[in-house]
Design brief:
Layout: E1 2-3, H1 22-31, H2 47-55, E2 60-63, E3 68-70, H3 71-87, E4 95-99, H4 104-116, E5 119-122, H5 129-139, E6 143-146, E7 160-163, E8 187-193, E9 201-206, H6 207-220, E10 228-231, H7 240-244, H8 246-249, E11 253-256, H9 265-274, E12 279-282, H10 284-291, E13 304-307, H11 314-323, E14 327-332, E15 341-344, E16 363-367, E17 380-386, E18 393-394, H12 398-404, E19 405-407, E20 417-427, E21 433-438, E22 442-445, E23 448-451, H13 452-460, E24 465-473, E25 479-486, H14 494-504, E26 513-516, H15 530-534, H16 554-567, H17 585-599, H18 605-610, H19 614-624
Parallel strand pairs: 1-24, 2-11, 4-5, 4-6, 6-7, 10-11, 12-13, 13-14, 25-26
Antiparallel strand pairs: 2-3, 8-9, 9-18, 14-15, 16-17, 17-20, 19-20, 20-21, 22-23, 24-25
Helix pairs in contact: 3-4, 10-11, 16-17, 16-19
Length: about 625
């Protein structure tokens, strides 16, 4: 089985090659790019929190639907767990995996890992079991922190497994005082992102970068006592550190969004109002569904909303200001760097959305293909340097690290590095950065950075597949489309491939369509003709060629109606996959929302992915609702 190298256009971007006059070069490298090394006086993410504990021990630090902790209580619980982790070998240079639902216990776990000196490896409970197993084997943590719901999914290994919500007696006798920080190379976390080889790559990010970003953001957008910041982002997403750590450095409070509520606009709106949330982060794609359930004057407590993870459209920006009396702050930056640029987005009808200006501890370069600065207004690739805030590299991937992390030729600082982002940008005359798109095949789908090659590699593993190309469909809400050819003597089932992908890939990486083609069309020079492929796209997944299996009971009938409403169909077969019928990862959240409202059950993404057909989902709903008729 093979994958086919592709490009979304016959030719790659051509960058400027003419050398800059010395005066313009000086302006671009230094005047538009002032640099100041940040003053970092902490070695762990927990130390600023510990200072705040001494200032406001009795103030409420975290609150959820069913629990709350003061600063002193959170500190005591985290200290005791951290002492146990330290005795198990957690210290700088080691990892502790965390796989828990959002809760007060999750905050205890993350602060305990920070205090121990280890880096946490987040494993979102919604990830497939195969993904969890790979991440544990690859990171080799000294311990895995779980809760009662995730504990059964942790495979056997050399790691210590602790359920934070159940095993408290194991560390109840540990000291309650703060741990002395240990010397060493401190990392805050190691995040797994999509990779090109069919397996995710792990980004090891330093504490000093996270602290520099946090201090800089706080100087620009201060929080303090009386503020409440919403924790709703998956802690496997890099911006979650602003929700987890920043508020508790400055005396604010963290309100923990209940599991599932982050994708339910009504529950989210009501939770914001209930806890008087003043600050939150939201991916632009998720803002439009939120708008559908809010109006002018909604969520009056909000002062500021940060958005990022994907480009902000003028529609999202202007829709925000139509509803909320709050600042909208656009943030930009890959996992390898943290924040690269930010700006407050005001109402500017018909104006493009800028990504803003970099923090003063970042060196930002827009370079041509000779690694020379481009003139103002001319596009080039974005590179970012600095003495802090650049990831160490990719865990156990030295060749890839050498390809993406380069020596910085524009500074005399020994050992200085810069990161090749793969983003196409340019400077405007006012020094603001404008993002023009991605170079190559890495894309953002609903806020999640995805290597299309990883999806190709997973599909190509299937015995029935000979060749595979994956691309993104323009103007279709970042819809992922896969095209495959059959292996000799085999036939390909689109539904089987969609199920195969759902088993091995995170939700955001599931193709919406699989189209079986006779051959992969190419240009004369051998590159794949993406336009020709898109003209053959099959949105039925083969479903429309199969007999229509009708609902067998009332639950199946209601679930089928929900499928039809979401997918814009008149009828669906109860044995066909949601993805084969044209669904995608964002529509999964809509499916959960409507089924939860219809049947009053607490469905998770895992529930839906475990049963992708009307019949399977109806069975799950029946099991969660004993009073319902059994399908």
């Amino acid at each position: 089985m093979t994958t086919v190298a592709t490009t979304d256009a016959p030719d790659e971007p051509v960058f400027a090659r003419s050398p800059l006059p010395p005066a313009e070069r000086e302006r671009i490298l230094h005047h538009l790019n002032p640099y100041r090394r940040p003053d970092i006086d902490s070695t762990t993410m927990a130390q600023p929190f510990e200072e705040q504990v001494r200032r406001t021990p009795d103030a409420e630090a975290v609150v959820s639907e069913d629990a709350s902790l003061t600063y002193a209580e959170l500190n005591t619980r985290a200290n005791q767990l951290a002492w146990l982790l330290r005795s198990a070998g957690a210290r700088p240079g080691t990892f502790v995996a965390v796989s828990m639902e959002r809760s007060v216990d999750l905050m205890v776990a993350l602060y305990a890992v920070a205090k121990s000196g280890a880096a946490y490896v987040p494993i979102d409970p919604e990830l497939p079991d195969a993904r969890m197993a790979f991440m544990l084997e690859d990171s080799a943590p000294v311990a895995v922190l779980v809760d009662g719901t995730t504990r059964p999914r942790v495979p056997e290994g050399s790691w210590l497994v602790l359920a934070v919500d159940q095993d408290g007696e194991r560390w109840a006798g540990e000291p309650t005082h703060d741990l002395p920080p240990e010397p060493g190379n401190h990392l805050i976390h190691m995040l797994y992102t999509s990779g090109t080889t069919g397996r995710p790559k792990a980004v090891a990010y330093p504490v000093d970068g996270a602290l520099a970003d946090t201090y800089w953001f706080h100087s620009r957008y201060p929080y303090g006592p009386g503020d409440t910041v919403l924790l709703k982002t998956s802690y496997g997403f890099d911006v979650s550190i602003w929700e987890i750590f920043w508020p508790l450095y400055c005396g604010a409070r963290v309100a923990i969004c209940p599991p599932g509520a982050h994708r339910d606009p009504v529950r989210l709106r009501d939770f914001i109002d209930q806890h008087q949330v003043t600050g939150m982060f939201m991916v632009p794609t998720m803002m439009q569904p939120f708008y559908d359930h809010t109006s002018r004057g909604s969520c009056p407590s909000l002062r500021r909303v940060f958005c990022g993870g994907e480009p902000v459209t003028p529609r999202v920006r202007d829709g925000f200001h139509e509803r909320f009396d709050a600042e909208l702050v656009n943030c930009c930056g890959p996992t390898e760097l943290g924040c690269v640029a930010e700006t407050v987005l005001a109402v500017e009808p018909n104006a493009p959305v800028m990504i803003g200006s970099p923090p003063e501890h970042r060196r930002v370069y827009i370079l041509d293909d000779n690694l020379e600065p481009t003139p103002i207004g001319v596009a080039g690739e974005l590179f970012v340097g600095g003495e802090v805030g650049i990831a160490q590299g990719y865990h156990r991937r030295p060749a890839l690290s050498a390809e993406r992390f380069l020596a910085d030729p524009f500074t005399d600082q020994p050992g200085a590095r810069m990161y090749r982002t793969g983003d196409l940008c340019r400077y405007r005359e006012d020094g603001v950065l404008e993002h023009l798109g991605r170079i190559g095949r890495q894309v953002k789908v609903r806020g999640v950075r995805i290597e299309l090659a990883e999806i190709e590699a997973v599909l190509a593993e299937h015995d029935d597949v000979s060749q595979c190309v994956v691309t993104v469909v323009p103007d279709r809400d970042a819809e992922i489309a896969a095209f495959v050819t059959a292996a000799p003597g085999r036939s390909v089932s689109a539904a089987a491939l969609l199920s195969h992908a759902a088993t091995l890939l995170p939700t955001a990486m599931h193709p919406s369509t699989v189209t079986v083609v006779g051959q992969i069309p190419t240009f004369v020079h051998g590159k794949v003709d993406i336009s020709a492929l898109l003209s053959q796209i099959d949105r039925t997944g083969g479903a429309d060629t199969l007999p229509l299996v009708p609902p067998a009971n009332a639950i199946e009938e209601q679930v089928a109606r929900i499928f039809c409403e979401i997918l814009g169909r008149d009828a669906v077969s109860v044995t066909e996959s949601f993805f084969a019928l044209g669904g995608h990862s964002l529509l999964v959240f809509k499916l959960i929302e409507l089924c939860t409202a219809q049947f009053q059950v607490d469905l998770s993404v895992r529930d839906v992915l475990a049963g992708l057909t009307v019949r399977d989902l109806a069975g799950t709903i029946a099991r969660l609702s004993p009073s319902e008729a059994t399908p």
